[in-house]
């Protein structure tokens, strides 16, 4: 009988390996895990145990075994001892998943940063904000809505890590899960796309780019893709072929976990839809845009510096770090890290239509541009921002627009309520009730 059980266990193990390999090649799993561990540990000082029980606690990623090398500043991962992948950490650039032929000894450039310190309270300075009580806020209702977003101890149903509510530039609610606090840097995943779009808005105001012009891609000049504009790319409306599927090997998983230069992942894709009439989501498009941005500068150093000097450090997002690929491009689709407070500043910048404490970073019209529905999106997408114009969240104002990332990262902007809400976590809609959280908070503001 014991032999039978051993045989069945072995057969089950072999089947599991085969199933995983067919659907998720092992080097993709180990690649995701190594990158996640390296980023979480070296950027946010999380322990390996915390990462494995949090960020990596889902199948099939949890099948990977990880190791951290403190001295070498890298992490490795394997799946049942197979397909080892390595992610290296470099100060200023974050963690990068590397291929076997990547030269780790090659010199690299890092962004030069100027972290401005002021004597102003949040959000315009570094002084801890004082409590502000608004007569029109029902704090009992507000705090109940925020508290309801979090798990009770021992559960993993809602998996919220942070909720931050800012009303009239004042923090009126702030709560963190165990192990997280106001200084915790959290990966925004695709919220980074909205950062990328904002760089275009700043360049547009400065007269250094015109998003209505054809995208400057040499490979497209002599074929039907020549008419694709930068604006089409910002609206995810180019008509270019792309498969955004994280459940298996697809264009996006190959890009994030194999490609050395992610800015080129969509360049050679054919046109399969009608430009400006074929909306579909594409992280490849965002990294293509990051490559376009890189070519706007005479030097690589200029490209690296501009994102911080013109936006990130300009508005005091001093905790933010945008990671690069092996070729030195910012992974503008996915790899931006910041505290919840600093993520909120991006929302506040849009709430105030590009004005940051008297400094107009982008034209007021840019806020309208990113929040206007793109053709074919049924009111759910603008220009690298998501929208509620189509009523995705039925009990939330339709003019709300938001940054959104994998596993339920969100910076929600409410122009009609002078309100910004940040939620960071590991569960997304429909597993997490965003409609309930957002409507509960909005409902706490008395008219």
SSE order, one letter for each helix or strand: HHHEEEEHEEEHHHHHEEHEEHEEEEH
Radius of gyration: 22 Å
The proportion of residues forming helix, as a percent range, comes to: 25-40%
Structural class: alpha+beta
Q: What is the β-strand count?
A: 15
- Sheet bearing the most strands, described? 6 strands, antiparallel
Outline type: globular
Regions with little confidence, pLDDT below 50 for 5+ residues = none
The averaged pLDDT comes out at 94
Helical region count? 12
Q: How many angstroms separate the termini?
A: 72 Å
| Fraction in beta strands | 15-25%
Strand order of the largest sheet: 6-5-15-14-13-12
Summary keywords:
6-stranded antiparallel beta sheet, 447 residues, 12 helices, globular, 4-stranded antiparallel beta sheet, alpha+beta
Protein described:
The longest helix has 22 residues, at 2-23. This protein has 447 residues and is of the alpha+beta class. Strands 6-5-15-14-13-12 form a six-stranded antiparallel β-sheet, sandwiched between helices. Strands 1-2-3-4 form a four-stranded antiparallel β-sheet, with helices on one face. It is globular. The protein has twelve helices and 15 strands. It has helices at residues 2-23, 26-44, 48-53, 139-147, 192-205, 230-234, 251-257, 283-294, 300-312, 340-351, 364-370, 434-443; strands at residues 64-69, 74-79, 82-90, 94-98, 160-167, 170-176, 186-187, 321-322, 336-338, 355-356, 359-360, 386-387, 401-405, 409-414, 419-425. The model has no long low-confidence stretch (mean pLDDT 94).
